[in-house]
Amino acid sequence: MSYCLNPDCPKPQNRSGRDTCRACGSRLLLKDRYRPLRLIGQGGFGRTFLAVDEDKPSKPHCVIKQFLPVIQEARHVRKAADLFEREAIQLESLGHHPQIPALLAHFSQDGRQYLVQEFIEGKTLIELVTIKGAFSEAQVREVLSSLLPVLEFLHAHQVIHRDIKPNNIIVPTGNHLLGQATSAIALDWAGLTQLLAQEATQGFRDGMSGPYRFSEAIARILAKVPQAWMLGDRQRCQHLSDYFATYSSLGFSQRQYLIADASRLVHELRQKYEMNGHGATSEHLVLVDFGAVKEANQTALELTGTAIGSPEYLAPEQSRGKATFASDLYSLGVTCLYLLTGRSPSDLFDTHQGVWIWQSYLKQPISDALTQILHKLTESSTSRRYASASEVLADLGQASPGQADPSGQTAIAEAPRPSPPVSRPSAPSGPNHLSFDVVISSPQRVVSALPATPKGGASRKKSERSWCCFQTLTNTGRVYAIALSPTPPLLVSSSGATLRVWNWQTGQALRNLSGHLDLVLALAIAPSGKLLISGSADKTIKFWELPTGKRLASLTLHTDTVLALSLNADGSLLASSSLHDPLVLLNVTTGQEHGRLHGHSSRVDTIAFSPDKQVLSSGDGDGVLKFWDVQQLQPIRTLQAHSQTITTIAYSPDGKTLASGSADGTVKLWSTQTGRAKRTLDLQQRVNGIAFNRDGKTLAIASDTLQLWNPRNGECQVTLDKATPPVTGVCYGVGLPHTTILNARTRNRPEANEVIASVGSDRAIYLWQLGYN
């Protein structure tokens, strides 16, 4: 079917394949590539069509918006044209946010203006309520948790949407709010895994798999990525498919790396879209219709303008032409009232008393916490309403089921004390006071300082000491990174795009920090304990005031996923690495780039500053270890350190030794003065994290288990073999840890016990301490 875009055409429906309309002779293809299929919407400013992009082999669906104002009075037409043009400008400027349809094209044809946008398959919230009835509290919380970060993103770009309403919010196909099976977001995971394993087993020869060669078969599967997936994930699969199209021309080592990258991506996406039950799309509703947006510069906020938006959902100040950021929050709050009741907002407001009466129409009771949030969202006075999306998210996080609440109850599972001691090869001859220096955390190497809690009285009989798990912090999602503040007792973890701040002593979740649009894969805390830095797959690095959770800044220093962060000893210089970029050095004080380091031929998964701040070391996917002069921005030494990816590095406290851990199952100790290997520790399993203790006499190593080694004689002293269960895969471009470690020291308390925190695949953070039998 083809649909004629001529508004005066008497019979706009045409058979597929026609180039011109049989009724009026108008061209049916826009720009010789976009074919309208059917009319799906019509409003005061134009019409919307479902279409296909015939320029692409897969012929994906898209949406065409045609500017066609109903009122033809000249002043009205100019206003409508301005709004249409504004929508195009805003969509382009906001970039490829996964919850905002991407702008594909903007042009004029036959005297009319058109927008072409990404098509989001699914249902609007108003359609969903019509079909399934009013939402539950849990569902409304999901809507808020999904859309508030989008508003935070828009407002950070000085954009007010001005038309938040149920009809402008799409629940993508495959989202569990639709009650659909996960098949809508599934891929042939088994086929992909089998193909990759078979190709590796056969020696990367591009062998036959049925009627196709390996590279052809895997490209065909990757080309069938569901439209319900996030745009960024679909693009990553497309890029990988493009790489496999060149597979036959690649060398042996290049094929190895491509297979490894594909395996990591398949594992990550399978975790995301299959193993999490309903997939990541459950958290990503899509906000559409940016025709009413307004740029919120200071002058615009001070001047009275035109009231734009849907009257029932409009904030009072917006109806007077004075929209602010809080106006979008009001509209979102009213949307939630509609979702909970299934009634028009006009029915939920008593105009005589001037108060909301929505609670009288509730289909089922809701908590006092959510009630208070909705009351504050829908306050008529902006002085009493939430001022920012982050404020709502903070309250929503504190009031969420399973999280800490003001009563002091916590969302932790605490292990019985004392737990059974972990076996060790032999007991030390005397007390072994470990004290670990601060190392910035990353997904591969999460190592930081943590003051331990003393246990027992002032005097104690000498007895056997062993490690016991004394606390377990439970997360709702997989933990990708973790960091501990050098000023106790704060601990920060990342699950997906959200950061969570914990009090590690009590186990209480203090607050959630939102703002990233994709996985947070690296964290760093300044020595002062006041500044938190996070790096994400959304390409940004964000700076937070740790004690309050306030976001201070957001920088885009890379063009791809941020993999690792490292601060120097005084916190004045930040180093960051990404998938394809050079390393970036940033002056934290001024916010200006200090320089860029070029030289790695593959991604850099781990970086670390020397204790004297003069050298930055980096390890890459080819097993290459580099030492850089921070001031001269030049390499000092390059070593072919490992046969596979270097996943983690750490300096000894005196700076004379650098330890490197690798996917090849070894840890190597290097002399920083000569560049020669002092010793190799063979673990025979992927190494995910390492850290020296304060005197450099003990090295903690995380792999499938957590072990403490003596770096001088190469002997394992302690094995914590029950810290977490191992995982079987890794994330794309990052390397998901089997066990990630954080090591603790006690300052001014020589009698206190050592503490270790470990993170595994079971969404929990384990805290261990060295006690006595």
TrEMBL record:
SMART domains: S_TKc, WD40
GO molecular function: ATP binding; protein kinase activity
UniProt entry tagged with the keyword ATP-binding: yes
A Pfam family annotated for this UniProt entry: WD40
Region (Disordered): 398-434
The keyword Mitochondrion belongs to this UniProt entry's keyword annotation: no
Gene3D superfamilies: Transferase(Phosphotransferase) domain 1, YVTN repeat-like/Quinoprotein amine dehydrogenase
CDD domains: STKc_PknB_like, WD40
Start-end of each WD repeat: 513-554, 597-638, 639-680
Sequence ranges assigned to domain Protein kinase in this UniProt record: 34-396
Binding site for ATP: K65
Keywords in alphabetical order: ATP-binding, Nucleotide-binding, Repeat, WD repeat
Protein name (record): Protein kinase domain-containing protein
Taxonomic classification: Bacteria, Bacillati, Cyanobacteriota, Cyanophyceae, Oscillatoriophycideae
